[in-house]
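Two records follow; treat each independently.
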Amino acid sequence: MALKWIVAAALACLLALATTATAATCGTAQYLSGATCKPCDYGKVASADGTTCVTCDPGFVKFPDSNGVANAECRAATEVCGSAQYAKNGRCSPCDYGKVQNGDGTGCEACPAGEVKVPDTNGARDAVCTPATEACGTAQYAKNGRCSPCDYGRIRNDAGDGCVVCGPGTVKTPDTNGARDATCELAASRCSANQIAMNGRCSSCASGRTPNADRTACVQA
């Protein structure tokens, strides 16, 4: 009888050992809590000893980063994330407006001068820096990686990194605030009979004066 009890107890111990988790038996995205393997949070993988979870190093993200996954690894954000995302707390996080992923995936950077982020939507996974001369309107220029409106009387310059005043005798048309597209047109066709082109806008002559032939100045009537 005693022998049977000893055998039964031994089998129970062996069974317990077989079903008790150890750090070595947990997945790479799990940690040992008591006798149980528990999943690491998003952006984290198991520590070296398997007793806790750690966030992936800067520039790296957990992959795959799904809830409850048993195994995962930290991989470079430049490989896993989109071109408009970077590694933040071990996860792919969207860059701000006007910015794309930097060279090592640790952050975001504004597009170079004269270029804008396309598409520049909130939460976009992928985007590229595109010349403002292709992506923006003729009354817009590249500012901090985004299409920004030119001031009154101005249109985009040839480089796309700024705005210029319309030439002599011409005015911005339309000259509305925030217009996407505009052209410089002759003041003679856009302004009233007593107006000239000044700083790219229609400007009235003073009393007793009248526009000259090319609408660049007011002369004595």
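The next record belongs to a different protein.
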Amino acid sequence: MREYFFNAEDAEDTEELKLRVLCVLRVISLFFLLSLFACGYTFQGAGSVLPPDVKNIYIPIVENQTVESGLTIIVTEALRDRFERYGVLTVVDSLSEADAILDAKIIALKRQTKNVSSSDTALEYDLVLYLSGELKRVDGSPLWRGSSVKATKSVGSTSDVVIASSSDFFGGSIDSGDLAQLESLDVFRGQEQEALLDLSDDIARKVYENAVLPEF
């Protein structure tokens, strides 16, 4: 029977090997993070291009130039939530408390046919939301301006295009057993309402990234 002996030198070699492996892993992790920043990736809320004295922001009710009256509150709340989410800025309730103000305007909401059936019936639409915004100090000096920020979301107009395997289906409120019983108009309205919420959140994200986050 062969016997193995483990002495103190072996233990020291093992510990030294562990330390070397740990150092290599740390270097690899650091290199990976630096690569992400070099390729243009940003972590939400990381830093700000705004002057250091701009900490409190006032976001009034957005101006809505469309006939979709419900968008006014949806977009306003999406902007307020996005700007307060990461702790870089504090959204305040009045202009007197603010260092800066974000004025936003919903320019248009367009429905563009994406897919049609053989009988020229629209099966899927693209909802496209356009918004302009200006971030400025309370004295009126500009900090950022975006003349046309755009967000797009696809919407199914019939039960045939509400695919049970899609991420929207699993995240939505429509069950597969209900699809056959729903009228096309009901499906479209439900999908469009969810799409408007997603559009508002997406366009708020783009405004925040353009106005606040530094470029890498």
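Discussion point: Residues 18 and 207 are 47 Å apart (CA to CA). How would you locate this feature using only the token line?
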